[in-house]
Amino acid sequence: MLARSAEALFTGLIDYAGLFPPAALSMADAVHNYDAYRRGEYAWMLGRFVVPVAKMSEVPAGFPLALVAPLIETSVGQAPSPARGQAGGA
């Protein structure tokens, strides 16, 4: 049995991101898994279902939107390498 303080810390801590790598599941499979996990032994630790904003329209009708965490995907480029002869350069 967990201490109440640990339970309070871990409750809802783990968001489910089955749509993203490495799982990269389809919406149907990810929703199915999330539903199963919400009914499982560790459901108390499960947080929200992470969905890219671009796929919000694919969330099935009737799915409780309060459980969805919309995510705006961004990309971050690699910082340029310092030029030769400058500090930190080769």
N-to-C SSE series?
A: HEHEE
Largest sheet: 3 strands, parallel
Strand percentage: 15-25%
- Class based on secondary structure composition and strand pairing: alpha/beta
Shape: extended
Tell me the strand order in the biggest sheet.
1-2-3
* Average of per-residue pLDDT values: 87
Task: Provide keyphrases for this structure.
extended; three-stranded parallel sheet; 90 residues; alpha/beta; single chain
Q: What this model shows, in words?
A:
There is one protein chain. Strands 1-2-3 form a three-stranded parallel β-sheet, covered by helices on one side. Strand 1, helix 2 and strand 2 form a beta-alpha-beta unit. The protein is of the alpha/beta class and 90 residues long. It contains two helices and three strands; from the N terminus they run αβαββ. The model has no long low-confidence stretch (mean pLDDT 87).
Ordered list of secondary-structure elements with their pairings:
Layout lengths: L3 H7 L3 E3 L10 H12 L7 E7 L15 E4 L19
Parallel strand pairs: 1-2, 2-3
